[in-house]
Write a structure and sequence with these properties.
438 residues, FAD/NAD(P)-binding domain, Elongation Factor Tu (Ef-tu), domain 3, 6-stranded antiparallel beta sheet, 32% helix
Length: 438
Protein backbone atom coordinates (compact mmCIF):
# COMPACT_ATOMS: atom_id res chain seq x y z
CA UNK A 1 0.00 0.00 0.00
CA UNK A 2 1.04 3.60 -0.52
CA UNK A 3 -0.01 4.57 3.03
CA UNK A 4 2.73 4.82 5.66
CA UNK A 5 1.92 4.66 9.38
CA UNK A 6 3.92 6.66 11.91
CA UNK A 7 4.86 4.83 15.10
CA UNK A 8 6.38 7.06 17.79
CA UNK A 9 8.61 5.22 20.24
CA UNK A 10 10.63 2.03 19.80
CA UNK A 11 9.92 0.49 23.17
CA UNK A 12 8.14 -2.83 23.54
CA UNK A 13 4.78 -1.45 22.38
CA UNK A 14 6.16 0.58 19.48
CA UNK A 15 8.24 -2.31 18.16
CA UNK A 16 5.28 -4.70 18.32
CA UNK A 17 3.02 -2.17 16.60
CA UNK A 18 5.55 -1.60 13.81
CA UNK A 19 6.10 -5.34 13.43
CA UNK A 20 2.37 -6.11 13.20
CA UNK A 21 1.91 -3.43 10.55
CA UNK A 22 4.87 -4.63 8.49
CA UNK A 23 3.77 -8.27 8.68
CA UNK A 24 0.52 -7.14 7.08
CA UNK A 25 2.26 -5.27 4.27
CA UNK A 26 1.96 -1.75 5.72
CA UNK A 27 4.96 0.60 5.54
CA UNK A 28 6.07 2.12 8.84
CA UNK A 29 8.10 5.12 9.95
CA UNK A 30 9.35 4.22 13.43
CA UNK A 31 10.56 7.25 15.39
CA UNK A 32 12.95 6.79 18.33
CA UNK A 33 14.79 9.54 20.19
CA UNK A 34 17.55 7.27 21.49
CA UNK A 35 20.53 7.46 21.25
CA UNK A 36 20.27 11.22 20.67
CA UNK A 37 18.28 11.65 23.89
CA UNK A 38 17.51 9.38 26.84
CA UNK A 39 14.85 9.49 29.54
CA UNK A 40 16.13 9.48 33.14
CA UNK A 41 15.43 5.73 33.33
CA UNK A 42 16.87 4.56 30.01
CA UNK A 43 20.58 3.81 29.52
CA UNK A 44 20.91 1.46 26.53
CA UNK A 45 20.65 2.60 22.92
CA UNK A 46 18.79 -0.48 21.70
CA UNK A 47 15.04 -0.85 21.18
CA UNK A 48 12.66 -2.51 23.66
CA UNK A 49 14.93 -1.72 26.62
CA UNK A 50 13.87 -3.30 29.92
CA UNK A 51 14.55 -0.65 32.54
CA UNK A 52 13.42 -2.25 35.82
CA UNK A 53 13.39 -6.02 36.04
CA UNK A 54 14.65 -8.49 33.46
CA UNK A 55 11.74 -10.80 34.24
CA UNK A 56 8.74 -11.10 31.97
CA UNK A 57 6.92 -13.02 34.73
CA UNK A 58 5.61 -16.57 34.73
CA UNK A 59 6.05 -18.82 31.72
CA UNK A 60 3.38 -21.43 32.46
CA UNK A 61 0.15 -20.97 30.55
CA UNK A 62 -1.88 -21.59 33.72
CA UNK A 63 -0.80 -18.14 34.93
CA UNK A 64 -2.08 -14.76 33.75
CA UNK A 65 1.37 -13.72 32.51
CA UNK A 66 1.96 -17.02 30.74
CA UNK A 67 -1.46 -16.96 29.11
CA UNK A 68 -0.86 -13.43 27.86
CA UNK A 69 2.42 -14.44 26.23
CA UNK A 70 0.80 -17.48 24.62
CA UNK A 71 -1.92 -15.30 23.12
CA UNK A 72 0.67 -12.80 21.89
CA UNK A 73 2.54 -15.57 20.10
CA UNK A 74 -0.68 -16.65 18.38
CA UNK A 75 -0.97 -13.12 16.97
CA UNK A 76 2.61 -13.07 15.69
CA UNK A 77 4.47 -11.34 18.52
CA UNK A 78 8.02 -10.14 17.93
CA UNK A 79 9.11 -9.75 21.54
CA UNK A 80 8.01 -13.12 22.97
CA UNK A 81 10.16 -15.21 20.57
CA UNK A 82 13.06 -12.79 21.11
CA UNK A 83 12.66 -13.25 24.85
CA UNK A 84 12.71 -17.03 24.57
CA UNK A 85 15.80 -16.91 22.37
CA UNK A 86 17.63 -14.80 24.98
CA UNK A 87 16.28 -16.28 28.21
CA UNK A 88 18.24 -16.88 31.39
CA UNK A 89 17.50 -19.35 34.18
CA UNK A 90 14.77 -17.98 36.42
CA UNK A 91 12.80 -20.93 37.77
CA UNK A 92 9.28 -20.78 36.37
CA UNK A 93 9.63 -17.26 35.02
CA UNK A 94 10.69 -16.06 31.59
CA UNK A 95 13.67 -13.80 32.30
CA UNK A 96 16.08 -12.47 29.69
CA UNK A 97 19.55 -11.13 29.14
CA UNK A 98 18.50 -7.50 28.74
CA UNK A 99 21.19 -6.47 26.27
CA UNK A 100 20.82 -9.56 24.07
CA UNK A 101 17.03 -9.24 24.13
CA UNK A 102 17.18 -5.59 23.10
CA UNK A 103 19.76 -6.33 20.41
CA UNK A 104 17.60 -9.13 19.03
CA UNK A 105 14.50 -6.95 18.78
CA UNK A 106 16.52 -4.07 17.31
CA UNK A 107 18.16 -6.20 14.63
CA UNK A 108 14.84 -7.70 13.52
CA UNK A 109 13.18 -4.30 13.32
CA UNK A 110 16.05 -2.77 11.36
CA UNK A 111 16.18 -5.74 8.99
CA UNK A 112 12.50 -5.40 8.07
CA UNK A 113 12.33 -3.57 4.71
CA UNK A 114 8.89 -2.08 5.42
CA UNK A 115 10.11 -0.37 8.60
CA UNK A 116 12.08 2.87 8.29
CA UNK A 117 13.73 3.87 11.56
CA UNK A 118 13.94 7.64 12.04
CA UNK A 119 16.19 8.74 14.93
CA UNK A 120 15.55 11.89 16.95
CA UNK A 121 12.98 13.27 19.37
CA UNK A 122 9.44 13.86 18.12
CA UNK A 123 7.76 16.88 19.67
CA UNK A 124 4.62 17.01 17.54
CA UNK A 125 2.57 14.46 15.65
CA UNK A 126 3.61 13.75 12.06
CA UNK A 127 0.89 14.05 9.44
CA UNK A 128 -1.18 10.97 8.78
CA UNK A 129 -1.95 7.90 10.85
CA UNK A 130 -0.01 7.74 14.12
CA UNK A 131 0.50 5.22 16.88
CA UNK A 132 1.79 6.95 20.01
CA UNK A 133 3.92 4.58 22.08
CA UNK A 134 6.14 7.01 23.95
CA UNK A 135 5.93 5.31 27.33
CA UNK A 136 5.41 6.38 30.94
CA UNK A 137 8.35 8.81 30.82
CA UNK A 138 7.21 10.72 27.75
CA UNK A 139 9.47 13.74 27.24
CA UNK A 140 8.20 17.27 27.93
CA UNK A 141 7.21 18.58 24.50
CA UNK A 142 5.66 15.31 23.41
CA UNK A 143 3.80 15.15 26.71
CA UNK A 144 2.39 18.59 25.92
CA UNK A 145 1.24 17.26 22.55
CA UNK A 146 -0.45 14.29 24.22
CA UNK A 147 -2.11 16.62 26.71
CA UNK A 148 -3.50 18.71 23.87
CA UNK A 149 -5.05 15.54 22.45
CA UNK A 150 -6.39 14.22 25.72
CA UNK A 151 -7.36 17.37 27.56
CA UNK A 152 -7.41 16.75 31.29
CA UNK A 153 -7.17 13.00 30.77
CA UNK A 154 -3.45 12.78 31.47
CA UNK A 155 -1.67 11.85 34.70
CA UNK A 156 2.00 12.34 35.48
CA UNK A 157 2.11 10.07 38.47
CA UNK A 158 0.81 6.66 39.39
CA UNK A 159 -0.76 6.37 42.83
CA UNK A 160 -2.40 2.98 42.91
CA UNK A 161 -3.75 0.94 45.81
CA UNK A 162 -3.52 -2.86 45.94
CA UNK A 163 -6.24 -4.94 44.30
CA UNK A 164 -7.46 -8.29 45.64
CA UNK A 165 -9.87 -10.90 44.35
CA UNK A 166 -13.30 -11.10 45.94
CA UNK A 167 -13.12 -14.88 45.92
CA UNK A 168 -10.08 -14.91 48.22
CA UNK A 169 -11.65 -12.82 51.00
CA UNK A 170 -12.81 -14.37 54.27
CA UNK A 171 -16.53 -13.64 54.03
CA UNK A 172 -17.01 -14.49 57.72
CA UNK A 173 -14.95 -11.44 58.73
CA UNK A 174 -16.14 -8.78 56.25
CA UNK A 175 -19.49 -7.27 55.34
CA UNK A 176 -21.03 -5.09 52.65
CA UNK A 177 -22.21 -1.63 53.68
CA UNK A 178 -22.00 2.02 52.68
CA UNK A 179 -21.18 4.79 55.11
CA UNK A 180 -24.30 5.98 56.95
CA UNK A 181 -26.27 3.49 54.84
CA UNK A 182 -26.35 5.92 51.94
CA UNK A 183 -27.01 4.35 48.56
CA UNK A 184 -26.36 0.69 47.85
CA UNK A 185 -24.09 -1.38 50.07
CA UNK A 186 -21.26 -1.26 47.53
CA UNK A 187 -18.25 -1.29 49.86
CA UNK A 188 -16.72 -4.31 51.54
CA UNK A 189 -15.83 -3.39 55.11
CA UNK A 190 -13.03 -4.97 57.13
CA UNK A 191 -13.60 -3.92 60.77
CA UNK A 192 -10.78 -3.72 63.32
CA UNK A 193 -10.84 -3.53 67.09
CA UNK A 194 -8.26 -1.41 68.90
CA UNK A 195 -5.77 -4.23 69.40
CA UNK A 196 -5.93 -5.23 65.73
CA UNK A 197 -5.56 -1.62 64.63
CA UNK A 198 -2.53 -0.90 66.79
CA UNK A 199 -0.77 -4.08 65.64
CA UNK A 200 -1.47 -3.11 62.03
CA UNK A 201 -0.27 0.46 62.64
CA UNK A 202 3.04 -0.71 64.15
CA UNK A 203 3.66 -3.14 61.32
CA UNK A 204 2.85 -0.50 58.70
CA UNK A 205 5.15 2.24 59.97
CA UNK A 206 8.01 -0.26 60.36
CA UNK A 207 7.64 -1.85 56.92
CA UNK A 208 10.33 -1.50 54.26
CA UNK A 209 9.70 0.98 51.46
CA UNK A 210 10.81 1.18 47.82
CA UNK A 211 13.68 3.57 47.18
CA UNK A 212 12.46 6.23 44.74
CA UNK A 213 14.75 7.42 41.97
CA UNK A 214 15.72 11.10 41.89
CA UNK A 215 13.45 11.91 38.93
CA UNK A 216 10.46 10.33 40.68
CA UNK A 217 10.50 12.23 43.96
CA UNK A 218 9.10 15.62 42.95
CA UNK A 219 5.48 14.65 42.14
CA UNK A 220 4.94 13.14 45.58
CA UNK A 221 5.84 16.37 47.34
CA UNK A 222 3.12 18.06 45.27
CA UNK A 223 0.17 15.68 45.21
CA UNK A 224 -1.01 15.51 48.82
CA UNK A 225 -4.05 13.52 47.70
CA UNK A 226 -1.95 10.52 46.67
CA UNK A 227 0.03 10.27 49.90
CA UNK A 228 1.21 6.72 50.66
CA UNK A 229 -0.73 5.13 53.52
CA UNK A 230 2.53 4.48 55.41
CA UNK A 231 3.44 8.19 55.23
CA UNK A 232 0.01 9.13 56.56
CA UNK A 233 0.44 6.59 59.38
CA UNK A 234 3.83 8.02 60.31
CA UNK A 235 2.16 11.34 61.14
CA UNK A 236 0.53 9.87 64.19
CA UNK A 237 -1.15 6.81 65.63
CA UNK A 238 -4.69 8.02 64.88
CA UNK A 239 -4.20 9.71 61.49
CA UNK A 240 -5.50 6.70 59.54
CA UNK A 241 -8.60 6.60 61.77
CA UNK A 242 -9.38 10.15 60.68
CA UNK A 243 -8.55 9.31 57.07
CA UNK A 244 -9.21 6.21 54.94
CA UNK A 245 -9.80 3.99 58.00
CA UNK A 246 -12.33 6.23 59.75
CA UNK A 247 -15.17 4.16 61.22
CA UNK A 248 -17.73 6.98 61.26
CA UNK A 249 -21.06 5.94 59.76
CA UNK A 250 -20.19 2.24 59.76
CA UNK A 251 -21.84 -0.38 61.96
CA UNK A 252 -20.25 -3.80 62.37
CA UNK A 253 -23.00 -6.27 61.56
CA UNK A 254 -21.55 -8.85 63.93
CA UNK A 255 -21.52 -6.62 67.03
CA UNK A 256 -24.06 -3.94 66.20
CA UNK A 257 -21.46 -1.33 67.17
CA UNK A 258 -19.10 0.99 65.36
CA UNK A 259 -15.66 -0.61 64.90
CA UNK A 260 -12.51 1.05 66.19
CA UNK A 261 -11.26 1.36 62.58
CA UNK A 262 -12.33 0.00 59.22
CA UNK A 263 -10.66 -0.72 55.89
CA UNK A 264 -13.02 -0.35 52.94
CA UNK A 265 -12.71 -2.21 49.65
CA UNK A 266 -14.24 -0.72 46.52
CA UNK A 267 -15.28 -2.63 43.43
CA UNK A 268 -12.66 -2.43 40.67
CA UNK A 269 -14.61 -3.94 37.79
CA UNK A 270 -18.23 -4.35 36.76
CA UNK A 271 -18.12 -8.09 37.38
CA UNK A 272 -17.24 -7.44 41.06
CA UNK A 273 -14.46 -10.00 40.98
CA UNK A 274 -11.78 -7.45 41.94
CA UNK A 275 -11.72 -4.92 44.79
CA UNK A 276 -9.18 -2.22 45.67
CA UNK A 277 -8.18 -1.09 49.16
CA UNK A 278 -9.59 2.42 49.38
CA UNK A 279 -6.97 5.02 50.28
CA UNK A 280 -4.17 2.46 50.47
CA UNK A 281 -1.88 3.78 47.76
CA UNK A 282 1.56 2.77 48.97
CA UNK A 283 5.28 2.72 48.35
CA UNK A 284 5.98 -0.43 50.37
CA UNK A 285 7.90 -3.28 48.77
CA UNK A 286 5.59 -5.94 47.36
CA UNK A 287 6.55 -8.57 49.93
CA UNK A 288 5.89 -6.09 52.72
CA UNK A 289 2.48 -5.25 51.27
CA UNK A 290 1.56 -8.93 51.34
CA UNK A 291 2.79 -9.29 54.93
CA UNK A 292 1.25 -6.11 56.37
CA UNK A 293 -2.03 -5.92 54.46
CA UNK A 294 -2.74 -9.59 55.20
CA UNK A 295 -3.12 -8.44 58.84
CA UNK A 296 -6.38 -6.73 57.83
CA UNK A 297 -9.34 -8.87 59.01
CA UNK A 298 -10.70 -10.81 56.04
CA UNK A 299 -7.53 -10.39 53.98
CA UNK A 300 -5.44 -13.05 55.73
CA UNK A 301 -5.41 -15.22 52.59
CA UNK A 302 -6.18 -12.53 50.04
CA UNK A 303 -4.93 -12.98 46.50
CA UNK A 304 -3.25 -9.74 45.38
CA UNK A 305 -3.62 -9.35 41.62
CA UNK A 306 -1.87 -5.98 41.76
CA UNK A 307 0.23 -4.44 44.48
CA UNK A 308 0.19 -0.73 45.18
CA UNK A 309 2.70 1.50 43.41
CA UNK A 310 3.93 5.05 43.74
CA UNK A 311 6.12 6.18 40.89
CA UNK A 312 6.25 8.67 38.09
CA UNK A 313 4.08 7.53 35.25
CA UNK A 314 2.32 9.17 32.33
CA UNK A 315 -0.97 7.56 31.41
CA UNK A 316 -4.14 8.77 29.78
CA UNK A 317 -7.71 8.32 30.95
CA UNK A 318 -8.20 5.60 28.37
CA UNK A 319 -11.83 4.64 29.17
CA UNK A 320 -12.91 8.17 28.25
CA UNK A 321 -10.67 8.38 25.19
CA UNK A 322 -9.98 5.04 23.52
CA UNK A 323 -11.81 2.30 21.69
CA UNK A 324 -10.96 -1.33 22.42
CA UNK A 325 -8.63 -1.35 19.39
CA UNK A 326 -6.60 1.44 21.09
CA UNK A 327 -7.70 4.11 18.60
CA UNK A 328 -9.06 7.44 19.81
CA UNK A 329 -12.82 7.82 19.68
CA UNK A 330 -12.62 11.43 18.52
CA UNK A 331 -9.52 11.02 16.34
CA UNK A 332 -9.64 7.45 14.92
CA UNK A 333 -6.47 8.01 12.89
CA UNK A 334 -4.54 8.24 16.16
CA UNK A 335 -3.76 5.18 18.26
CA UNK A 336 -2.06 4.79 21.61
CA UNK A 337 -0.05 1.80 22.79
CA UNK A 338 2.02 0.80 25.79
CA UNK A 339 1.92 1.81 29.43
CA UNK A 340 0.51 5.20 28.49
CA UNK A 341 -2.82 3.45 27.86
CA UNK A 342 -3.02 2.06 31.38
CA UNK A 343 -1.82 -1.48 30.72
CA UNK A 344 0.78 -2.24 33.37
CA UNK A 345 3.80 -4.42 32.75
CA UNK A 346 6.35 -5.25 30.06
CA UNK A 347 4.33 -7.84 28.18
CA UNK A 348 1.06 -5.98 28.65
CA UNK A 349 2.67 -2.97 26.96
CA UNK A 350 3.97 -5.14 24.14
CA UNK A 351 0.54 -6.78 23.76
CA UNK A 352 -1.17 -3.41 23.38
CA UNK A 353 1.25 -2.65 20.56
CA UNK A 354 0.21 -5.82 18.78
CA UNK A 355 -3.47 -4.91 19.12
CA UNK A 356 -2.95 -1.32 17.94
CA UNK A 357 -0.76 -2.33 14.99
CA UNK A 358 -2.96 -5.21 13.89
CA UNK A 359 -6.15 -3.15 14.26
CA UNK A 360 -4.66 -0.30 12.25
CA UNK A 361 -3.45 -2.66 9.51
CA UNK A 362 -6.83 -4.38 9.16
CA UNK A 363 -8.59 -1.03 8.91
CA UNK A 364 -6.23 0.14 6.16
CA UNK A 365 -6.66 -3.14 4.29
CA UNK A 366 -10.44 -2.87 4.44
CA UNK A 367 -10.80 -5.96 6.61
CA UNK A 368 -13.27 -6.49 9.42
CA UNK A 369 -12.01 -5.51 12.86
CA UNK A 370 -10.54 -8.24 15.02
CA UNK A 371 -13.03 -8.86 17.83
CA UNK A 372 -10.81 -10.02 20.66
CA UNK A 373 -12.91 -12.37 22.81
CA UNK A 374 -13.57 -11.17 26.34
CA UNK A 375 -12.48 -14.60 27.59
CA UNK A 376 -8.93 -14.00 26.34
CA UNK A 377 -6.36 -12.02 28.34
CA UNK A 378 -5.83 -9.71 25.37
CA UNK A 379 -9.56 -9.12 25.09
CA UNK A 380 -9.96 -8.57 28.82
CA UNK A 381 -7.15 -6.00 28.91
CA UNK A 382 -8.46 -4.11 25.89
CA UNK A 383 -11.94 -4.12 27.43
CA UNK A 384 -10.57 -2.82 30.73
CA UNK A 385 -8.82 0.19 29.20
CA UNK A 386 -11.79 1.10 27.01
CA UNK A 387 -14.75 0.55 29.34
CA UNK A 388 -16.39 3.94 29.98
CA UNK A 389 -18.59 2.37 32.65
CA UNK A 390 -15.80 1.32 35.03
CA UNK A 391 -15.51 2.46 38.63
CA UNK A 392 -14.85 6.07 37.61
CA UNK A 393 -11.28 6.21 38.88
CA UNK A 394 -9.09 4.68 36.19
CA UNK A 395 -5.80 3.14 37.27
CA UNK A 396 -3.32 1.01 35.32
CA UNK A 397 -3.92 -2.74 35.28
CA UNK A 398 -1.72 -5.72 34.43
CA UNK A 399 -2.72 -9.18 33.29
CA UNK A 400 -4.52 -11.17 35.98
CA UNK A 401 -7.14 -13.89 36.04
CA UNK A 402 -9.51 -11.62 37.95
CA UNK A 403 -10.32 -9.53 34.86
CA UNK A 404 -11.53 -12.57 32.92
CA UNK A 405 -15.23 -13.53 32.95
CA UNK A 406 -15.95 -16.16 35.56
CA UNK A 407 -16.13 -19.81 34.57
CA UNK A 408 -19.52 -21.45 34.36
CA UNK A 409 -18.57 -23.97 37.03
CA UNK A 410 -16.83 -23.47 40.37
CA UNK A 411 -13.37 -25.05 40.56
CA UNK A 412 -11.74 -24.95 43.98
CA UNK A 413 -8.23 -25.99 43.02
CA UNK A 414 -6.44 -22.83 41.92
CA UNK A 415 -4.10 -24.49 39.41
CA UNK A 416 -6.95 -26.44 37.85
CA UNK A 417 -9.13 -23.33 37.72
CA UNK A 418 -6.44 -21.25 36.02
CA UNK A 419 -5.83 -24.07 33.57
CA UNK A 420 -9.52 -23.94 32.65
CA UNK A 421 -9.29 -20.17 32.16
CA UNK A 422 -6.29 -20.65 29.87
CA UNK A 423 -7.88 -23.39 27.77
CA UNK A 424 -11.04 -21.32 27.32
CA UNK A 425 -9.00 -18.24 26.36
CA UNK A 426 -6.87 -19.99 23.75
CA UNK A 427 -9.89 -21.72 22.26
CA UNK A 428 -11.85 -18.45 22.01
CA UNK A 429 -8.92 -16.51 20.53
CA UNK A 430 -8.13 -19.25 18.02
CA UNK A 431 -11.75 -19.33 16.89
CA UNK A 432 -11.78 -15.54 16.38
CA UNK A 433 -8.50 -15.67 14.44
CA UNK A 434 -9.97 -18.33 12.13
CA UNK A 435 -13.03 -16.14 11.56
CA UNK A 436 -10.81 -13.14 10.81
CA UNK A 437 -8.60 -15.11 8.43
CA UNK A 438 -5.45 -14.86 10.55
Amino acid sequence: MSVTVNVIGAGLAGCEAAWSLARNGIAVRLYEMKPEKFTPAHKYSGFAELVCSNSLKAARIESAAGLLKAEMELLGSLTVPCAKENSVEAGGALAVDRKKFSDSVTSKIKAEPLIQVIPGEVTDLPEGICIIATGPLTSGKMADTVRSLCGEGLSFYDAAAPIVTYESLDKEKVFFASRYGRGDADYINCPMDKEEYLAFYRALIGAERVQLKDFETHPFSVYEGCMPIEVLASRGEDTMRFGPMKPVGITDERTGRRPYAVVQLRRENREATLFNLVGFQTNLKFGEQKRVFSMIPGLENAEFVRYGVMHRNTFINSPALLNSDFSMRERPEIYFAGQMTGVEGYMESAASGIIAGLSCARKLLGKEPLQLPRESMLGALSAYISDPFGNGKFQPMGANMGILPELGTRIRDKKEKYGAYARRAIEALTKEMERAGL
